[in-house]
Amino acid sequence: MSDAVPNNQEAAESSGGQQEYDPRKLLAIHPREADRIFNSQGSYGSNDLTADFREQVKALSQVYQAIQRYLTGVFRRDDIFYPEIEDVAKDLVIYKRSISDKIPMPTDEQLRKYCICLAAQTPPLIHILREVAPDGKSGLQFVNRYVAPTDKHEDKVLVGYKSTIQSSLRTLKSVIEKAEFGHDYGTLFHGTTSIADLPLHMGRADQALRGMYIDEKGFQSISSTDLAHVRKVNQELYKRLYRPLLMQAVRDRLFVSISCDDVRKTGFAGAEKVYDIVLFAKTGEIQNRFASICAYLKPQYLGEWLSAEVYNSLARKRKAGEISESEFFSSVAQNAYEKLITQNEPPLKELLLVVEIMKLSEWYRKFEKQQAKDSAQSELKDVIAKIKAFGGVYRTRNNRSITISEDLQRMMLRGKIPGILACTEPYMRPDEITNETDLELFDNIHIIYRDRSITAKAVETATELFEKSDDVYLLRVLESLYGIFRESDTHIKQYLAPVYIEKLRHTIRRSYARHLPWWSRLLLFLTSSEMTDARLARIRQNLQSDQERRLSRMRIPSETNQKTEAKKARDEVRKLARQRAGEGDAVQKLGSQENKVFESIRADLDAAWNRGAIPVRGEVEKMARGAEREDVQKILGMVDVGAASVREILRIPISGYEHVYANREYLMQNRDTLIERYQARVENESVIIHDNREMLLKGQGDGKDEVYKGMLDYLRYRLK
């Protein structure tokens, strides 16, 4: 290209000082300079044109002018701005007839070679655009289009490349989003008995885009000169289309790119041949591929690179639930990889297989983790939106309009979710609420959205209730929620207007006056005065002491009660076991009333699981309605001994924890959702939103990792 500019300058000087066009900026030769080349190649310089160009200059000139006529609108199809080979051929036929040209019309193959020759000059006269198009079979094909600068639009080539990339991205998005898109790798790899024959490149996005290159084998005959032209054009396609399109598709999340840079940096023999893995961003497609290539991760296929002893040892750990399925495959692949890289010339197919399995295992773990985060984030956004729409103080007990998991409730009570105020009843300080605090022991949990219009409305409601009916319940709730006697006015003003702070504080003082002796109340009434801050503080202190005693009982359950309940449960189980052994299942059949209680237990269990609880026996008994308690205890005892009549309720053994109860039908229907939930809890991360920004809180788990692991094990391997 460096020689072209001086020659162009010479041509400009010899033609009377015409304007010079820098082909480096236009990416191609300007049409005026192209005309001079076709009319007199000598004036352009002998070193810049290939020998076959001079031999075919007349035919090449006709092809170039046909492309120019299309680009300038002399002949064009609607909405197709760059000609395809058929458009060039049609124009040539019309042109040759108009001038009675005796040169035979070129064949389709020859015409394509002419276009490649024009694109392979230095600088090129035209550029070949290879645009992605659907093939009608949920796959991809590439269409050849041609572009060159025109007198009116000198930047036509640059615009053409940008247009081709954007159009190709739209096509990729449309094709990938189709439900039927994807490869059946089981069928694709079917019959392959050797890893050396495994077509690992099939189905990868980067390989699919390689169809963009002009195929040397696509010609019936090809000379060494033609071959050199094709390779030069392909270099330009890589730089202008393949690489930019691949990178943009990754940025747009149409492709998933998995870096293998760490493997290449290892520096073992053959490391430079391990390219990044680029797949279509379709989870089902990636899962299918992962499962299919893992089928070849066995000693029978990897031979000396994987010992049967190591494979079987890891397989036993997977079966025992000590490692997950993806961890199993990753460990097996890692073992084979470590042996392969010690070789002077490790077999490439085996190396690529184990590296891809290692990388996909890692990607899949991150994907599941991200899914859990996204699910938590989605749940949080949904709950916040519902609380905001509720427009008042929301009580979590005996209220099913909004389901809030225990994890979220804890975060709200600790003040970890800006935009939400929450408190317990009786009140417990946020810093005292730990992962072990049983939220079910509180009478209620109150939540409100931190919006001035909502908080003010709650104050109006509480004040009105007190004025009309002497009801102080909501006042006490707002006192705790807003921290009226704990927080400074500056802090409270963030979510409650000053006028409402004064109104609420005044009403609360009046409500506490009820705890004064009658003569004190009379004196205050007669003198139109309020009680002093000191008296108010004493009253609040006395009431707070009552709450502290309740909280102490909640924190330290009675050991005697625990032993009594445990003994009663054991006696009930033994009694039912003896009945079952002596009299058969007939005595364990449920009566009409017991059937109603049985169905009630199932419904209560479903509700508990829905709100994120893991109900143990004591919690199930708490759900009982008055006189039903004995029936509930009897039914749970029958469940414990495995009575057939109550088999729809499961007792789930968790190592180091109490037995957990669940409705069998509920677990079967929600198995996948529950697995995702407990996998996320094991990961022990939570997402919050702060000022419209996502934030990650680590270490906010609830200390029940072993319980969640036990539940995962049961749901995955033992639920039937």
What does this structure look like?
The chain is mostly helical and 720 residues long. It has 31 helices and eleven strands. The strands form five sheets. It has a three-stranded antiparallel sheet, sandwiched between helices. Helix 5 packs across helix 6, helix 8 (156-176) crosses helix 11 and helix 17 (348-390) packs across helix 30. 30% of the residues are buried. The model is unreliable at 1-19, 557-564, 578-587 and 685-701 (pLDDT under 50).
Q: Residue ranges: pLDDT <50 for 5 or more in a row?
A: 1-19, 557-564, 578-587, 685-701
Helix content: 55-70%
Beta-strand percent range: 5-15%
Shape: elongated
* First and last CA, distance: 72 Å
Overall mean confidence score, pLDDT: 82
- Separate helix tally: 31
Which sheet architecture does the biggest sheet show?
3 strands, antiparallel
Structural class call reads: mainly alpha
Nearest-angstrom radius of gyration? 39 Å
Order of strands in the sheet with the most strands?
5-7-6
Can you count the beta strands? 11
What are the main properties of this structure?
720 residues; mainly alpha; three-stranded antiparallel sheet; two-stranded antiparallel ribbon; 31 helices; 8% strand; elongated; disordered N terminus
